[in-house]
Design brief:
Elements lengths: L9 H11 L5 H12 L3 E5 L3 H4 L2 E2 L2 E6 L2 H7 L5 E4 L5 E9 L12 H13 L2 E5 L6 E5 L2 E5 L2 H35 L4 H28 L4 H10 L3 H12 L8 H10 L2 H4 L2 H8 L17 H5 L6 H11 L2 H6 L2 H5 L5 H16 L1
Helix pairs in contact: 1-7, 2-4, 6-7, 6-8, 7-8, 7-12
Amino acid sequence: MPAADDPVDEKELFLDTLRTVAPGTMLHEALESIIRARTGALVVIGDHPEVMKVVSGGLRLDCPFGPSRLYELAKMDGAIIIDRDIKKIVLANAQLIPDPSIPSEETGSRHRTAQRTAKETGALVIAVSQRRNVVTLYRGNMRYVVREIGVTLAKANQALQTLEKFRSILDQARIKLTVLEFEGVATVGDVVWTIQRGEMLNRVTREVERYVAELGVEGRLIEMQLKELISGVEPEASYTIRDYIVQDGDRTLKSVRDQLRALSFDDLVDQALIARILGFTGAKNVLDEIVSPRGYRILSKLPHIPFSVVDNIVGVFGNLQDVIKASPEELDKVEGVGESRARGIKEGLRRLRQ
């Protein structure tokens, strides 16, 4: 589990939090015992200075962590402090005194204290409701209620079916774009449609990743299916953007990807907005404008052609149509290509076109 000050992005921090309490972990086993016993609990993961500032009293234990130990200690009213690696129980029956001015929408005192402690310290705080048998996770401004395994499994399988449909639609869009690129008649609209489908698939992927993290050992089959369904999606999405991004100012592959991820669903269906993110502005009918790819996506499909060589080819010829028209002798002159690879490129392009 990362330290409170480790530079982890929001998505990874959330998934790491779910993995910490997922089935198959000793912490999950302890929480299950606490739920069955209906004792409730308040557990803080982390003993760094920010946490200890809000801790008052308690029994100093410094004993090895174990599910049975945590279960027994939860019978006391106070909070339990565990080190961030979940290997040692530091304190038990401790009182948490976070800043009362920190806003909290919780009504129960245990959950309100947990949320304020998490916001103030950045640590993972787990509140187990004594009456409702519900586990709630707090970390920074994050709040998440852990669901039953059966419910999560059902939602994960439903999301997988949706992901499979989106992958099929994306594959069809890419095949169509490939045909149009070889014919030299691809439009901005065709490009945007493909990128749009890819980003929609990414969003469903992130949903399934959350279920996999939450399911722990129970989600291994779903994780295998997920890896199969998203194989090759990310690299080809990057190549598509490289092919069509209008390079001016600070617009880069990363900035475009970040802007696409930040779009709301309503904005994602706006094709004109995606075109503007790529750099196509001006005319109202910009989506009908014919554009030529640089060739990254198509050339990356050819076997045994490293990206550095693809980049050199694009740097020399500038667009896919000129690469297609180039003779083996012209390709041979590009750094890293050579006579044998030049013939392979011509043959590979011929097969792709067919």
